[in-house]
Amino acid sequence: MSDITRVGVIGCGLMGAGIAEVCARAGLDVLVREIDERAAAAGRARIEKSLGRAVRAEKLAGPDRDAALERIAVTTDVGDLADRDLVIEAATEDPDVKTALFAALDAAVKRPDAILATNTSSIPIAQVASATTRPAQVIGLHFFNPVPVQNLVELTPSVLTGEDTATRARAFAAEVLGKSVIIAKDRAGFIVNTLLVPYLLSAIRMYEAGYATAEDIDTGMRAGCAHPMGPLELADFIGLDTLEAIADTMHGEYAEPLHAAPPLLRRMTAAGLLGRKTGRGFYEYPRR
Q1: What is the tens place of the pLDDT at every residue in 107-125?
Q2: Which residue in 2, 50, 122, 193 is the catalytic one?
């Protein structure tokens, strides 16, 4: 049985909010840290909206929603995470940002047995662990979006992660949150993105070269391969800036041409066309 009861989450964007929600619904005390009061309020509203959707879909009872919300607090002070048993970082997919955050967490979190986890989808775990004085307690816990719906967690120990940390983190994800856990080696992209990202980049190259329309590429993979979303739809859902960052991390480690971000992807991110979150990517979407 897991000994983790107090969880901290760094960041309350789509991923951080989802992680906070599933932890609170599992009965845990959750403290979310955001960069400022505006971001904290937006994050809290995101969690409330998601829980409201679960109630309307009859996947959650009203009293359970209220209880989950009572278990979630939001702060702007990283020092408030001092008593957490586990802190999960869910900030932007940028190595410099993540290493700076782990250095700050190392100083802030006072429990000697606390686990510091990163939700990175591609950055090597040893890289962020090296920013701390306790690399044996750093591990990757990669959730998938939307976290309340997607059942998978990639557990990624680094060469520095202690066996006890890996055991406790796996018990937390599997027994407390009820997620399916797969174990990945600490290589850029882990399991899922090592397979997924080249596929998405290939679809972008196909579209860029004029092989077919975005709609026909996506319909081909939905109807021909029974994929729930086509690759360009999925790229928009992930966020084109996030996809570019993952591709750059993987290309930096492996130097494989199939990991190189296509010119069209770079032009779109430079123009702020990031997919669903900005209202336009390969498709247009209602602004949130």
Answers
A1: 999 999 999 999 998 899 9
A2: 193
* List 21, 34, 89, 154, catalytic entry: 154
Q: CA-based diameter of the chain, in Å?
A: 56
Structure-block tokens of residue 135: 């690399």
193 catalytic per annotation: yes
- First-to-last alpha carbon distance for the chain, in angstroms, is 40
**Does 259 participate in catalysis according to the annotation?**
no
Q: How far apart, in Å, are the Cα atoms of 267 and each of 95, 125, 215, 263, 273? A: 22, 29, 20, 6, 9
In whole angstroms, give the CA distance from residue 38 to residue 40.
5
Instruction: Kindly name the residue from 142, 158, 251, 259 that is annotated as catalytic.
Output: 142
Question: pTM here?
Answer: 0.91
- Summarize pLDDT for 199-232 with one digit per residue, the tens: 999 999 999 999 999 999 999 999 999 999 999 9
Residue 220, number of CB atoms within 10 A of its CB: 16
Known catalytic residue at 154: yes
Set 119, 121, 122, 158: catalytic member: 121
Beta partners for residue 152, in sequence order: 180
